[in-house]
Protein backbone atom coordinates (compact mmCIF):
# COMPACT_ATOMS: atom_id res chain seq x y z
CA UNK A 1 0.00 0.00 0.00
CA UNK A 2 1.43 3.35 -1.03
CA UNK A 3 1.37 6.32 1.35
CA UNK A 4 -1.11 7.95 -1.02
CA UNK A 5 -3.57 5.04 -0.87
CA UNK A 6 -3.14 4.78 2.90
CA UNK A 7 -4.16 8.43 3.27
CA UNK A 8 -7.13 7.82 0.96
CA UNK A 9 -8.42 5.22 3.39
CA UNK A 10 -7.60 7.16 6.60
CA UNK A 11 -8.51 10.74 5.77
CA UNK A 12 -10.41 11.22 2.56
CA UNK A 13 -10.58 15.03 2.84
CA UNK A 14 -6.80 15.39 3.10
CA UNK A 15 -6.33 12.91 0.25
CA UNK A 16 -8.68 14.92 -2.00
CA UNK A 17 -6.92 18.17 -1.09
CA UNK A 18 -3.55 16.66 -1.98
CA UNK A 19 -4.87 15.29 -5.25
CA UNK A 20 -6.37 18.68 -6.19
CA UNK A 21 -3.06 20.37 -5.38
CA UNK A 22 -1.11 17.81 -7.41
CA UNK A 23 -3.46 18.25 -10.37
CA UNK A 24 -3.20 22.04 -10.20
CA UNK A 25 0.60 21.86 -10.11
CA UNK A 26 0.77 19.17 -12.84
CA UNK A 27 2.55 16.81 -10.45
CA UNK A 28 1.39 13.61 -12.12
CA UNK A 29 3.82 11.49 -10.12
CA UNK A 30 1.88 12.38 -6.95
CA UNK A 31 -1.51 11.39 -8.29
CA UNK A 32 -3.22 8.25 -7.14
CA UNK A 33 -4.65 7.24 -10.51
CA UNK A 34 -6.54 4.16 -9.31
CA UNK A 35 -8.48 5.98 -6.60
CA UNK A 36 -8.97 9.10 -8.73
CA UNK A 37 -10.60 6.95 -11.40
CA UNK A 38 -12.85 5.31 -8.78
CA UNK A 39 -13.88 8.68 -7.40
CA UNK A 40 -14.67 10.09 -10.82
CA UNK A 41 -16.90 7.10 -11.56
CA UNK A 42 -18.71 7.78 -8.27
CA UNK A 43 -19.10 11.48 -9.10
CA UNK A 44 -20.61 10.60 -12.47
CA UNK A 45 -22.98 8.11 -10.86
CA UNK A 46 -24.00 10.57 -8.13
CA UNK A 47 -24.82 13.24 -10.70
CA UNK A 48 -26.99 10.84 -12.66
CA UNK A 49 -28.73 9.69 -9.47
CA UNK A 50 -29.40 13.29 -8.43
CA UNK A 51 -31.17 14.01 -11.71
CA UNK A 52 -33.15 10.79 -11.43
CA UNK A 53 -34.15 11.67 -7.87
CA UNK A 54 -35.20 15.20 -8.87
CA UNK A 55 -37.32 13.78 -11.71
CA UNK A 56 -39.04 11.26 -9.44
CA UNK A 57 -39.89 13.95 -6.89
CA UNK A 58 -41.21 16.34 -9.54
CA UNK A 59 -43.32 13.66 -11.21
CA UNK A 60 -44.72 12.57 -7.85
CA UNK A 61 -45.86 16.14 -7.19
CA UNK A 62 -47.31 16.44 -10.68
CA UNK A 63 -49.17 13.13 -10.55
CA UNK A 64 -50.83 13.74 -7.20
CA UNK A 65 -52.11 17.12 -8.32
CA UNK A 66 -52.89 19.91 -8.46
CA UNK A 67 -55.46 20.43 -11.18
CA UNK A 68 -58.00 23.23 -11.60
CA UNK A 69 -60.88 20.92 -10.69
CA UNK A 70 -59.32 19.54 -7.52
CA UNK A 71 -58.74 21.00 -4.08
CA UNK A 72 -55.04 21.67 -3.52
CA UNK A 73 -53.03 24.09 -1.50
CA UNK A 74 -50.79 26.89 -2.61
CA UNK A 75 -47.98 24.78 -1.19
CA UNK A 76 -48.55 22.20 -3.95
CA UNK A 77 -47.99 24.79 -6.63
CA UNK A 78 -44.98 26.16 -4.81
CA UNK A 79 -43.46 22.69 -4.44
CA UNK A 80 -43.88 21.96 -8.15
CA UNK A 81 -42.34 25.29 -9.13
CA UNK A 82 -39.38 24.83 -6.75
CA UNK A 83 -38.84 21.26 -7.90
CA UNK A 84 -38.79 22.34 -11.55
CA UNK A 85 -36.32 25.12 -10.72
CA UNK A 86 -34.08 22.72 -8.79
CA UNK A 87 -34.10 20.20 -11.63
CA UNK A 88 -33.28 22.91 -14.17
CA UNK A 89 -30.32 24.00 -12.03
CA UNK A 90 -28.97 20.44 -11.87
CA UNK A 91 -29.45 20.01 -15.61
CA UNK A 92 -27.58 23.23 -16.38
CA UNK A 93 -24.55 21.73 -14.64
CA UNK A 94 -25.03 18.30 -16.23
CA UNK A 95 -26.64 18.86 -19.62
CA UNK A 96 -25.35 15.61 -21.11
CA UNK A 97 -27.18 13.58 -18.47
CA UNK A 98 -30.60 14.48 -19.86
CA UNK A 99 -30.90 11.16 -21.69
CA UNK A 100 -33.20 8.77 -19.87
CA UNK A 101 -35.41 5.96 -21.11
CA UNK A 102 -38.47 7.88 -20.08
CA UNK A 103 -41.87 8.44 -21.72
CA UNK A 104 -41.51 12.24 -21.52
CA UNK A 105 -38.62 14.46 -22.47
CA UNK A 106 -36.93 16.45 -19.74
CA UNK A 107 -38.06 19.61 -21.52
CA UNK A 108 -41.68 18.42 -21.38
CA UNK A 109 -41.52 17.72 -17.63
CA UNK A 110 -39.94 21.11 -16.99
CA UNK A 111 -42.62 22.89 -19.03
CA UNK A 112 -44.75 24.85 -16.57
CA UNK A 113 -47.89 23.70 -18.42
CA UNK A 114 -47.10 19.96 -18.28
CA UNK A 115 -49.88 18.20 -16.30
CA UNK A 116 -50.31 21.27 -14.14
CA UNK A 117 -49.93 24.86 -15.24
CA UNK A 118 -48.42 25.97 -11.95
CA UNK A 119 -48.82 29.67 -12.73
CA UNK A 120 -52.41 29.67 -14.02
CA UNK A 121 -53.63 27.03 -11.56
CA UNK A 122 -51.99 28.90 -8.69
CA UNK A 123 -53.69 32.13 -9.77
CA UNK A 124 -57.06 30.38 -9.98
CA UNK A 125 -56.67 29.10 -6.41
CA UNK A 126 -55.66 32.58 -5.20
CA UNK A 127 -58.60 34.12 -7.06
CA UNK A 128 -61.02 31.75 -5.31
CA UNK A 129 -59.43 32.47 -1.94
CA UNK A 130 -58.95 28.74 -1.38
CA UNK A 131 -56.26 27.23 0.82
CA UNK A 132 -54.79 30.46 2.10
Describe the protein:
The radius of gyration is 22 Å and the shape is elongated. It has helices spanning 3-10, 12-24, 33-63, 74-93, 106-110, 118-128. The protein contains six helices and no strands. Helix 3 packs antiparallel against helix 4 and helix 4 runs antiparallel to helix 6 (118-128). With 132 residues, the chain is mostly helical. It starts with a helix and ends with a helix. This is DUF29 family protein. InterPro entries: DUF29. It holds the Pfam family DUF29.
Cα end-to-end separation: 63 Å
Annotation, overall tally of beta strands:
0
- Whole-angstrom Rg: 22 Å
Along the chain, the helix and strand elements come as HHHHHH
Q: Profile the largest sheet.
A: none
Topology:
Blueprint: H1 3-10, H2 12-24, H3 33-63, H4 74-93, H5 106-110, H6 118-128
Protein name: DUF29 family protein
InterPro entries: DUF29
Task: Put the structure in a nutshell.
This protein is mostly helical. It has six helices and no strands. It folds into two domains: 1-31, no CATH class; 44-128.
Question: What keyword list fits this structure?
Answer:
single chain; 132 residues; mainly alpha; 2 domains; 6 helices; DUF29; DUF29 family protein
Amino acid sequence: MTPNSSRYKRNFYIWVSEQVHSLAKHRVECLNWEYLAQELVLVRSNQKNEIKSQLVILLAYLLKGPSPSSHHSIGSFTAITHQRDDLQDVLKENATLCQYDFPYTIEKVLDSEFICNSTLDFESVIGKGDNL
